[in-house]
Task: inverse folding
């Protein structure tokens, strides 16, 4: 007969032995932050298997918004909870100013020759472009022409807006301000116009709740990025993306190595995989609809641009000017919008 | 076991408490006394900015009022439910306790998003009211304080019911019979016998619901939207979006102190009512 002790010991040995091949096999891991939602879905289904296949590295993803990544690494003071950042332009500048990144060695990226010029700098690498415009429900509303339409009938009473917490929210509010005579550094006209129509606006929401609000018909039009529209469409939501008449906004998404990262070398291999043609080919397809930076990837007609050279025709913003003003804008948005 | 040994037994917990709770709290207070977001210039500028802005007082008042409204709603719905539980046969009590505890088994995020489906423009409530012809246009329930209080009432209900039921189950059933035998009506028995005796449980429930509702960041922002501004939203914006940690620390301490003040008052009431019941 087996005693309880011998049974437990046997089970432990067997259990431990089952882990051995994995331990001997795994070349390592890389812990990377990624945006929750569409990015997390895409990276889990496309990038993680590709990284495992190409370099035998396991990808651990931490879904965090850009600002949350900066806050976590700042709070960790030299012992970052992940190796790789993925950031929009505003938080990227905050990260550089705060000394949160390791210097970037572009020579370690084997796919570098396939990237357009200027995609790698001393702080990181561009991995994709994002396009921000208007998402609306074509079954409920006529197609809007531009930012100005958002604040007039019939769109305004079905409009959902967010504040300056996110990149897409900030750039959209800047564009609304510009449509009413403001500028990149003067969003006052947006506040004035929003205040006039505030009682009519369907939802002033948390960015994380906007997809749910659109899905539930709480609002039928909002400013958003093309990936969110793509993912909602793939879930059966009636939504279409519109490039505003004054132009859609585009910005690059960049990746960086966190200062004090445990697996910096694996992070380079992760970046190399992300910008590879294989991963790019998979990410451009629905439901992901990403805009990759690898020149060898053919962009399908469903995307708003046919190649990355068109980035110059999109509206770009100077985040070194926006960042210092953002805290004040957030405060003002709270006060102006508060019930 | 002698007294000294008992005292030593509490040491690990006390040390963990000091390291995990007290030290960060002291750091929070320390950080609030810096003027700049880089935490290099000591000063009271952030306190002056927060306390000198009338908007801050509105946010504090709204946060505390949200707690009060949620507590009142949970009492209104929860107390009759506790009475039904008290009068139910044991088998039904088991079913009821399962129903009461069930929301706790779900993540607060799931419960909160479920309320979007219920309260939305095309949600269950509006669909029912529209199909019954009670309303002709969908009601705006999401992104209103009413919708937020309704959802918080359901989300926080177990925190009210569990202490309440635990206290009420221990009430001597003979007391109710004695009250009835002496000619008291059911209402009089309720207000002069059951309510006073259940006060410790009621106060404990109020305390938990108040503390939880005032700090329920996810529900407040997802259901209430960002036009209803409460202290947790300000803390999140300042710490995670603007990275002004000294200002976030000031708002955090304000939330802590204002909630603690109300909780202490409730706790004092609870101790008094406990003395009244047993003394």
Result:
């Amino acid at each position: 007969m087996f005693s309880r002790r011998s049974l437990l010991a046997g089970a432990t040995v067997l259990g431990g032995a089952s882990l051995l091949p994995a331990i001997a096999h795994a070349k390592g891991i890389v812990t990377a932050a990624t945006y929750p939602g569409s990015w997390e879905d895409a990276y889990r289904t496309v990038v993680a298997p590709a990284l495992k296949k190409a370099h035998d590295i396991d990808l651990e993803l931490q879904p965090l918004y850009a600002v949350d990544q900066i806050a976590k690494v700042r709070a960790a003071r030299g012992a970052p909870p992940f190796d790789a950042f993925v950031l929009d332009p505003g938080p990227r500048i905050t990260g550089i100013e705060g000394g949160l990144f390791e210097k970037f060695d572009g020579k370690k990226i084997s796919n570098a020759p396939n990237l357009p010029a200027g995609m790698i700098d001393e702080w990181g690498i561009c991995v994709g472009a994002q396009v921000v415009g208007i998402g609306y429900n074509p079954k409920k509303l006529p197609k809007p022409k531009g930012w100005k339409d958002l604040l007039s009938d019939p769109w305004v009473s079905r409009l959902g807006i967010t504040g300056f917490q996110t990149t897409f929210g900030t750039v959209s509010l800047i564009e609304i301000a510009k449509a009413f005579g403001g500028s990149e550094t003067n969003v006052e006209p947006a506040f004035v116009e929003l205040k006039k129509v505030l009682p009519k606006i369907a939802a002033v929401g948390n960015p994380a709740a906007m997809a749910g609000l659109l899905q539930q018909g709480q609002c039928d039009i909002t400013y958003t990025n093309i990936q969110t529209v793509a993912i909602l469409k793939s879930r059966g939501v009636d939504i279409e993306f519109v490039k505003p008449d004054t132009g859609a906004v585009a910005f690059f998404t960049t990746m960086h190595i966190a200062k004090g990262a445990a697996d910096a070398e694996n992070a380079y291999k992760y970046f190399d995989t992300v910008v590879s043609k294989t991963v790019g080919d998979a990410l451009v397809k629905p439901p992901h609809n990403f805009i990759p930076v690898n020149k060898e990837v053919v962009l399908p007609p469903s995307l708003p641009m046919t190649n990355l050279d068109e980035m110059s025709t999109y509206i770009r913003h100077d985040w070194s000017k926006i960042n210092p003003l953002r805290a004040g804008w957030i405060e003002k948005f709270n006060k102006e919008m508060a019930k | 076991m002698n007294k000294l040994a008992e005292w030593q037994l509490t040491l690990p917990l006390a040390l963990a408490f000091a390291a995990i709770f007290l030290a960060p709290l002291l750091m929070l207070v320390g950080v609030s006394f810096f003027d700049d977001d880089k935490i290099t210039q000591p000063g009271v500028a952030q306190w002056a900015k927060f306390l000198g802005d009338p908007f801050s007082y509105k946010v504090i008042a709204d946060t505390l009022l949200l707690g009060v409204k949620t507590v009142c709603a949970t009492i209104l719905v929860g107390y009759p439910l506790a009475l039904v539980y008290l009068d139910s046969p044991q088998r039904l009590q088991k079913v009821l306790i399962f129903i009461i505890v069930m929301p706790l088994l779900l993540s607060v995020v799931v419960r909160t998003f479920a309320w979007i489906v219920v309260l939305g423009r095309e949600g269950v409530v509006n669909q029912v009211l529209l199909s019954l012809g009670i309303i002709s246009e969908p009601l705006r329930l999401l992104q209103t304080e009413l919708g937020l209080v309704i959802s918080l009432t359901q989300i926080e209900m177990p925190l009210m019911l569990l202490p309440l039921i635990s206290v009420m189950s221990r009430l001597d059933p003979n007391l109710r019979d004695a009250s009835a035998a002496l000619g008291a009506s059911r209402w009089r028995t309720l207000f002069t016998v059951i309510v006073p005796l259940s006060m410790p449980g009621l106060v404990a429930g109020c305390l938990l619901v108040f503390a939880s509702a005032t700090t329920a960041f996810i529900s407040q922002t997802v259901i209430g939207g960002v036009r209803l501004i409460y202290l947790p939203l300000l803390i999140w914006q300042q710490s995670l979006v603007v990275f002004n940690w000294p200002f976030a620390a000031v708002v955090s301490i304000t939330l802590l102190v204002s909630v603690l003040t109300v909780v202490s008052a409730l706790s004092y009431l609870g101790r008094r009512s406990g003395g009244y019941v047993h003394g």
About this structure: Chain B touches chain A at residues 55, 58, 113, 116-117, 120-123, 142-143, 145, 221-222, 225-229, 234, 237, 239-244 (CB under 8 Å). The CA atoms of residues 7 and 17 of chain B lie 15 Å apart. DSSP finds 13 helices and no strands in chain B.
